[in-house]
Amino acid sequence: MKEVTANFNTKEIEREVQEYWRTHETYKAVKQHRSAGKAFFFVDGPPYTTGQIHLGTAWNKIIKDSLLRYQRMNGRNVIDRAGYDMHGLPIEVKVEQALGFSSKKDIEKFGIGHFIEKCREFAIRNKKLMDAQFESLGIWLDFPNAYQTITPGYVEAAWWTLARAEEKGMLERGFRVVNWCPRCETAIADAEVEYWDETDPSVFVKFPIKGKANEFLVIWTTTPWTLPANVAVAVSKEFVYARVHAEKNGHKEYLWMAEPLIKSVLKKGRYQKFEALETKTGADLVGWEYDSPLAEQVPLQHEIAHRVVAADFVAMENTGMVHIAPGHGWDDYVLGTKEKLAIVCPVDGAGKFLPVAGIFAGKFVRDANQDVLDALGDHLMATEKITHRYGHCWRCKTPIIFRATSQWFLKASEIRDLMLAEVEKVTWYPEWAGSARFYDWIKEARDWCISRQRYWGIPIPVWVCDKCDKYRVIGTIAELEKASGTTVPDPHRPFVDSVTIPCECGGEMHRVGDIFDVWFDSAVASWATLGFPAKTAEFEKLWPADFITEGQDQTRGWFYSQLGASTIAFGKAPYKSVCMHGFALDAEGKKMSKSLGNVVSPEEVIAKVGVDVLRFYVLSTSAPWDDLKFNWDGVATVNRAVNILWNVYRFPLPYMILDKFEPQSKDGVWDKAYIASHLHELPDEDRWIISRVNTVAGIVDAATKECQLHRATRELINFILEDLSRWYVQLVRPRMWLEGESEQKRFAYETIYYVMRRLIGLMAPFCPHITEEIYGNLRCRNDPASMHMLDWETCDDSLVNAELEHAMELARSFDDAVQNARQAGKRKLRWPVDEVVIVTAKEEVKAAVARLNAICMDRANARKVTVVMGRWDRIGWHAEPVMKALGKGFGKDSFKVKGLIEAADGNAIKAATGAGQTYTLTSGDAKFEIGAEHVTFTEKLPADIFSAPMEDGTVYVDVALTPDLEAEGYAREVIRRIQEMRRQLDLAVEDFITVDVAVADKRICDLVGANWKPGIAEEVRAKNLSLHNANEPAASAYQLIKEWDVEGIAMTIGISKASP
RNA sequence: GGGCCCGUAGCAUAGCUCGGUGGUGCGCCCGGCUGAUAACCGGGAGGUCAUGCGUUCGAAUCGCAUCGGGCCCA
Fold first, then answer.
1. Are A1044 and A1060 in contact (CB under 8 A)?
2. Architecture of the CATH domain A963-1057
3. Which of A462, A551, A646, A678 is the least buried, fewest Cβ under 10 Å from its Cβ?
4. Is the CB of residue A729 inside 7 Å of nucleic acid strand B?
């Protein structure tokens, strides 16, 4: 053991500990140590390689690390491979920006191969940056061996999974409407669409009814550019529609729309007169034919037979008639398929109209809105603006469009029930994350469009014959090599694009151009990380995962994508338990974002308070599943608690070292059995703190098992502050100062040692650095080299004494009350008091005070601490007049009587009225008879007695001084000042001094001199002490002379270090 | 528009499952200790428990509605 500095420098300690771990390969050694244990298969949700971790990412990994360290200490062989998500559009967009590209044409010109190389470099560079950031957080995951979604083996896992989907008929090639980003020129998943407000046109358009002159259907839309793709108008069967005769500026026409909406629509169209002529239900309208108002300008529209159809999604708003373009809307598409409407999409991947769109050809769709309105001419009935929520591409923020294209789908909707059944088998923390949130999300599951028309991703392993259109899904690289007769060194684009497979029909199969949705990459992580399908042994042994934990945003993300892929491939959930955690927000509960300028980075926190404090803070400040409102005050509070831990640890070290203390050990290994075998000899405070640390261990263990990390860490912080620092250390201090060999001191050392070892064991999963540092200093010669190799210890019931814990709680409550009462009586703690009395009705309190009497006396600085059951006879009564009764009984003498009652002996009045008699008050000649109705009583304390409530009782402190008490009080004042001066001279604890004390007041001087000279000399380690009455400073030359004012008495004290 | 979570002193939170005088920490004010000392400890002030309605003898807690924040969805 060595002494440690008072300046608790977390950063320095953490740097040293991490350096120690590095040079001793501690992580590896710990893994080796647990390698024979039962496996605990954890799958790291792969962060996307953006290069910069934020507070939320740090929190995520801290939760993982804490729980995994807990599992390791419990003997589990933890599969802890880290992972990174390294493909996808976000990286492509970053690289495009770096290269100054604005469209896919730029990429194709640059060369797909070159572009992918840039993306790969970007991903790998960022992965390395993030490795370092995670490791600086003390995260013990296998980073050097992290799974990366870009490796051939990983790609193969995705291919294999798709092959299973095809086998089971879950893969579908479909011409369907998808969310489409016109800038990225790719389909994007529902999950990749972000919504915010956009302002768009809101227009009412007249469609001429076939064969009826001057008669129209009125529809409403916010996307005029979809009108060139209109094929139908939808109505609700139940709604009532009306034929309206409308007149505007002398022009008359007939309009059809939902009857309840006539007024609002015609007002918008600025019609001066209108009149409903007849009504029909929607069902009656079905089958009506109409012409497109754009037939002239758009050749495509000539081909289409437009008609009215019924749909259940039509709402009673706008006109009650909905424009249907099955190529540009999801509902439209579904309806179009059902009604066998033409599904037309005259828009290319870049969002520009094709030649079939006639006059609009080449125009970008959103720019074409005005052109369409112009082209509508008289058919445009009204136009205004509307601001509504609109979808955008998650990466480039471009407003999306809906576009019917040929895509690949996994039929997730067909396995919905199986997924729901699997979700119920998973253990969720908290329970509602699964039963409510995730469950509801899966109920809505739609087919999953997995194809993207991009470059940096896992190529979809589907080869299509250019002759017979038959397709084949390739499951492994070996299979591809065999089928194609080519070696495949890298399964990425563009290389795989050039690999062809001969078809049975004699034609040649080419790979489809698409890559996977990047969410599919991480979806296969639980088996890809085990090297499956190339290797199967580990998979068979370990899969599915024992545990995963991620943020609540992953409900729709990784929790779902994994479940979907796994249910398709294996028919079951890929994880057994899931902890869903919250989001890291700023102090106001707002999302941290660069634009708001409220971002706090983990580095910033670490720079101020260190890693362990950050870890302890994020774990203790909120429940994992609640959002974390980051707050610097909270960080400072946790920092203080950790600092107190450091002080508690540091405090006994100098004494232990001075006494060459070694804890009981066997063969150089700490033997904690000492505590159990000596328990009955230990003083109560030792037995109490031993009991407490075990009780706490039980709570921490139970909480951690249930992912209640906030409860575990709060319990620990509370133990450090309340039990250790504020109580045990205060009680045990005098025993540290005992000279020479002493059993009591030895007990204190062994107890402190035990408690510290147990405490750092409990804290190790959460604060791995400071616990390692303390352990490194405390450990015995042959103890394991690292704290993290020790086994987890929960509560040892044989060391718990609930009765003693409760008794001590009462003693603490007593202590608080005494301090409170002393404060009221203005008697400092340094001054002894004669007696403290506790009045209580509870036997428990009496027993506790009897058992812990020495502690109570010491804490109260009292000569006696006694318990009175029921009522203490020194408490008197004070009578208070009841004016209402006095007025009735004494009339105009009331006020006189009031004064008399207040001045009278309350005890006497109470005795008389309590016995049913009256009490006579006299004033001059007047006599007044006081009855029970005239007075109420309050307690009256004798002078010098002050009280304060404690748990189940009241504490009374007698602060009256006797010469004896006064002598000790002054003696203590003198001692304190000499000690203060010792410190000023920077003397060592064991140094001796010579002292001269000149006291200006003769009475005080004699009082103290009579009995206290030896006591003072001993306390301050004085070889010579002279105490004399004088008004002048002592003449002799002392190293330090100071004048003091002690409670109004002038004293001059000189001290010097004595020669040894 | 829908699902889930959250709202308790200046700040951060416990209590809510299962109704019975709202605790704690930080900060603030006052004090103590002085062999943990740039440390430690005690006391005090500070609350419409987001708002409203309801159930109940009694609601922070149960129900409904509204408002605000977060995540997700349409």
1. no
2. 2-Layer Sandwich (3.30)
3. A678
4. yes
In whole angstroms, B7 C1' to A391 CA is: 30
CA distance A611 to A54: 14
A876-940, CATH topology level? 3.30.720
- A989 has a pLDDT exceeding 80: no
- Check residues 556 to 575 of chain A and report those whose beta carbon is under 7 Å from nucleic acid strand B: 556
Class of domain A616-799: mainly alpha
Does the nearest atom of strand B lie within 7 Å of A583's Cβ?
Answer: yes
Rounded to the nearest 5 degrees, what angle is found at the Cα of A716, between the Cα atoms of A711 and A717? 100
The backbone torsions φ and ψ at residue A175, rounded to the nearest 5 degrees and listed phi first, read -90, 105
pLDDT per position as a tens digit, A186-238: 888 766 677 777 778 888 899 999 888 889 999 988 889 999 999 999 888 88
Architecture, CATH, for domain A168-186+406-517: 3-Layer(aba) Sandwich (3.40)
Check if A616-799 and A963-1057 are the same fold: no
> Residue A858 CB closer than 7 angstroms to strand B?
no
Nucleic strand B under 7 Å from the C-beta of A386:
no
Q: Which of strand B's nucleotides are less than 7 A from any protein C-beta?
A: 3-6, 10-14, 25-27, 31-44, 69-74
Strands A1022-1029 and A993-999: parallel
Q: Which nucleotide is nearest to A990 (CA to C1')?
A: B35
pLDDT band at A594 (very low <50, low <70, confident <90, very high): low
pLDDT tens digit sequence for A694-746: 999 998 998 898 888 888 888 898 888 888 888 898 888 888 877 778 889 99
Q: Say yes or no to pLDDT of A1036 above 80.
A: no
Closest of A487, A717, A496, A481 to residue A616, by C-alpha: A717
Of A171, A172, A173, the residue nearest A162 (C-alpha): A171
The ipTM, to two decimals, is: 0.81
Which nucleotide across the nucleic acid strands is nearest to A737, CA versus C1'? B35
- Whether residue A386 is predicted with pLDDT greater than 80 in this model: the reply is no
Closest listed residue to residue A159, CA positions, set A404, A418, A481: A481
Which of A404, A474, A517 lies closest to A85 in space, CA to CA?
A: A517
Are A821 and A948 a contacting pair, CB within 8 Å?
yes
User: Which residue lies nearest B39, CA-to-C1' measured?
Assistant: A647
Report whether A461 contacts A162 (CB < 8 A): yes
* Structure tokens, A1036: 């002799």
Q: Residue A593's pLDDT band (boundaries 50, 70, 90)?
A: low
- A198-394: in CATH 3.90.740.10: yes
* Contact yes or no for A719/A697 (Cβ under 8 A): no
CATH classification for the domain delimited by A33-159+520-610, as one of 3.40.50.620, 3.40.50.2000, 3.40.250.10, 3.40.50.1820: 3.40.50.620
Residue A383: both structure tokens together: 């136009």
Q: Is A634 within 7 A of strand B by CB distance? A: yes
In chain A, domain spans:
33-159+520-610, 168-186+406-517, 198-394, 616-799, 807-874+944-958, 876-940, 963-1057
Strand B-proximal residues of A, range 647-666, CB below 7 A, are 647-648, 650-651
Q: How far is the CA of A627 from the C1' of B67 (A)?
A: 20
pLDDT of residue A769: 94
